[in-house]
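Q: I have 111 residues here and want to know how they pack in 3D. Can you give me a structure?
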Amino acid sequence: KELQEKVQVKDDALKQEKNKLNETIKKGKEYIHDLKAKTEETILSISQEKNAIQNELHQVAAEKDEMQENARRTLALLKQQLASAEARGSSLEQENDELEGRCKSLTDQKE
């Protein structure tokens, strides 16, 4: 009977230890599950942030291309206006020379 009691005590102690281990395993599994969920959340958040940054980069690149195209067009227009102004200036100089010549001619005739 004494042996039976010792066996029963040891059996109870083993059952208690087993229950503690099962509880630890259960908590460990819950922790791992929570950690996986948080990791997936973090990965999703990082992925969304990465996509937002990539979209912003594409937008900035498109704006840069548009600005470069506008600058190219403006430069071409300014070059055209400069050439036109130079031609007009040359024409006015020639007209001025002709008028000065006519004035000198009229002055000479008057004298």
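Q: Anything worth noting?
A: The chain has one helix and no strands. Residues 23 and 58 are 52 Å apart (CA to CA).
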